[in-house]
């Protein structure tokens, strides 16, 4: 058992492949790793390990996607003039801020979750924002984040050792105990091939609007908070869009399970 290390393992989690010996240990591992226990249909499988079962799973996954897309296309809200006007307004206002905002059909998870609005009186966005902390397998959703708010201030309630919530601080202990200079904020570059996923590094001292300028966003921004001192598989492009000088094969081909889910969900 990978939780208590005392008893012989009887179960294996379909999601993270951790071995457990009892229901108690199963619950403990789910709580510790924020694991839902549901098999990840989009998990990476190498060619050498690919079997007929994986092929069948992919086929059924595509069938499910097709049914969901068809049901969404038939949804009355999709053809609602008010909905179309709202989405057109959001995309148009984003374009005015030099942000390319793309929306998904009704039925997609990110479309249902998105609560982004634009205040015409204040002339600014209030973004739906997702923060992902890969080193702790944690993610948080923020609603109504003004686009003029500094990124460092957005992160304070999570990683600041003084201002952060005690419960959150304990969960993100590896971040709160690290120097603030080690914290990097990354955002995935959209419209790239699956085998060449890249990230832009954002400036924590600038506002959300300034950081989003010139970037493509699908529904809402998703920010990955990582530490320089810890190894991660995210390949970050330079400010001029150039590839890093040294780039291992593992960095260009693998992502954490959290990121994989994001990619498939937004494709």
From TrEMBL:
Cellular compartments per GO CC: nucleus; pre-snoRNP complex
A biological process term (GO) from this entry: box C/D snoRNP assembly
One term of GO molecular function: zinc ion binding
Superkingdom assignment: Eukaryota
CDD domains the UniProt entry points to: zf-HIT_BCD1
Keywords per UniProt: Isopeptide bond, Metal-binding, Phosphoprotein, Ribosome biogenesis, Ubl conjugation, Zinc, Zinc-finger
SUPFAM superfamilies for the chain: HIT/MYND zinc finger-like
Comp. bias regions, Low complexity: 242-258
Disordered: region residues: 238-267
Domain (HIT-type): residue spans on this chain: 1-35
Assembly and interaction partners: Interacts with FBL, SNU13, NOP58, NUFIP1, RUVBL1, RUVBL2 and TAF9. Interacts (via HIT-type zinc finger) with the RUVBL1/RUVBL2 complex in the presence of ADP.
Function: Required for box C/D snoRNAs accumulation involved in snoRNA processing, snoRNA transport to the nucleolus and ribosome biogenesis.
Family membership noted in the UniProt record: Belongs to the BCD1 family.
UniProt name for this protein: Box C/D snoRNA protein 1
């Amino acid at each position: 058992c990978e939780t208590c290390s005392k008893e012989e393992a009887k179960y294996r989690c379909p999601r993270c492949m951790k071995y457990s010996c009892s229901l108690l240990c199963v619950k403990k591992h789910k709580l510790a790793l924020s694991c839902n226990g549901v098999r990840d249909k989009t998990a990476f499988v190498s060619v050498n390990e690919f079997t007929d079962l994986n092929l069948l799973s992919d086929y059924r996954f595509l069938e499910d996607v097709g049914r969901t897309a068809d049901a969404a296309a038939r949804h009355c809200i999709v053809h609602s003039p008010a909905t179309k006007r709202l989405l057109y307004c959001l995309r148009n206002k984003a374009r005015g801020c030099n942000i390319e905002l793309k929306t998904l059909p009704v039925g997609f998870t990110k479309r249902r979750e998105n609560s982004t609005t634009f205040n015409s009186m204040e002339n600014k966005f209030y973004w739906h924002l997702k923060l992902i902390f890969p080193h702790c397998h944690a993610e948080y959703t923020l609603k109504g984040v003004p686009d003029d708010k500094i990124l460092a201030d957005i992160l304070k309630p999570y990683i600041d050792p003084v201002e952060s919530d005690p419960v959150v601080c304990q969960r993100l202990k590896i971040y709160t105990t690290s120097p603030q200079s080690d914290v990097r904020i990354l955002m995935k570059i959209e419209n790239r091939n699956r085998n060449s996923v890249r990230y832009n590094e954002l400036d924590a001292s600038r506002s959300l609007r300034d950081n989003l300028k010139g970037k493509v966003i699908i529904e809402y921004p998703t920010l990955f908070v990582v530490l320089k001192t810890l190894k991660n598989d995210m390949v970050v492009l330079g400010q001029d869009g150039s590839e890093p000088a040294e780039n291992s094969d593992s960095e260009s081909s693998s992502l954490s399970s959290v990121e994989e889910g994001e990619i498939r969900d937004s494709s």
